[in-house]
TrEMBL record:
<protein>
    <submittedName>
        <fullName>Epimerase</fullName>
    </submittedName>
</protein>
<dbReference type="InterPro" id="IPR036291">
    <property type="entry name" value="NAD(P)-bd_dom_sf"/>
</dbReference>
<dbReference type="InterPro" id="IPR001509">
    <property type="entry name" value="Epimerase_deHydtase"/>
</dbReference>
<feature type="domain" description="NAD-dependent epimerase/dehydratase">
    <location>
        <begin position="7"/>
        <end position="244"/>
    </location>
</feature>
<dbReference type="Pfam" id="PF01370">
    <property type="entry name" value="Epimerase"/>
</dbReference>
<dbReference type="InterPro" id="IPR050177">
    <property type="entry name" value="Lipid_A_modif_metabolic_enz"/>
</dbReference>
Amino acid sequence: MRKAGPILVTGGAGFIGSHLVDGLLAKGYAVRVLDNLSTGKWSNLPAGRDRLELIEGDIADVDVVESSMQGCSAVAHLAAVASVQASVEDPVSTHRSNFIGTLNICEAMRRAGIKRVLYASSAAVYGPNGEGQAIDEDTPKAPMTPYAVDKLAGEQYLDFYRHQHDLEPAIFRFFNIFGPRQDPSSPYSGVISIFTTYARDAKPITLFGDGEQTRDFVYVGDLIDLLIQALEMPRVEAGAVNVGLSRSTSLNQLLETIGSLVGGLPPISNAAARAGDIRHSRANNSRLLARYRMAEPTSLRDGLARLLNG
Ligand code: NAD
Ligand code: UD1
């Protein structure tokens, strides 16, 4: 699978993307990053590295996507508005990035003759359907937010390109990924980045809802190994793959663990649950374990400790 051309990582200046770039560089790949720096930062990436090209541009711009793809051997498509809440507030601009951008990637790959693409879909596509049980990939989809609608549509377009144009999409439905470089600066940021930063800085925390909602949190380092396997495997089987650990943690439990690591918690207030928020989300990860090699996953406590000490 490894060819001379670079791997194009869209969204490579962001949280997950920058860890993937590190992983690819460490394995000897050349990498080209396309990012509009809406939430990502070049400072997330190593400076002055051979084999790393940076392009500032928007995946909604066909010409930028097409020129960025020239000479690449594969694509990891991670660029998106990652916040579910941002998509509720502004569906149109989210759609430009998350849907139009994905379609542009598919078309540019077809024209360039590039086959392999990783796609960062989301557990959000299941909506409330899996609540109360571990969600497997065949669970009926019930997207409840513009974010989830666009992610599901992106998956379906990739399926179309697989049938029609022999693209080789490896579609992953990430559950809640956390770790260093997840930006805590917006109210829409990932909950662990906000809670750990605020706990460390003794700033008041807001819990939307009663804190009994649950998530399946995955440490980013455990995800990167899987993504690189998907780039390297000889053949990608059809069908999206959940990336979760089948571990359920409530926000109240999360706060308790963070409190025990930082030696106490700041004041916590409750606000109304967010529109479109999913109550319980936990992966059935049998397909992941059948298709990919997975080392012992990082425990939530160890991942939080690494994040807090990093
Ligand atoms: P992030 O915001 O840190 O990364 C997204 C990156 O994409 C940023 O660098 C941003 O600047 C860039 N970007 C956004 N719109 C763009 C555009 N139109 N053109 C070019 N670049 C653009 O978020 P993340 O958590 O690293 O998410 C990466 C991917 O994984 C996203 O597709 C997200 O939907 C998906 N995902 C994340 C999680 C999670 O828990 N973090 C879970 C499920 C899926
Ligand atoms: C997250 C990801 C999304 C991904 C989905 C997959 C981010 C920003 N979002 O969405 O890309 O597709 O997982 O499962 O990475 N909360 C608080 N207080 C806060 C912030 C959040 O109580 O200050 C609550 C939210 O209301 C929600 C929970 O924490 O109930 C998780 O929120 P968030 O981290 O934004 O993640 P998801 O919405 O699950």
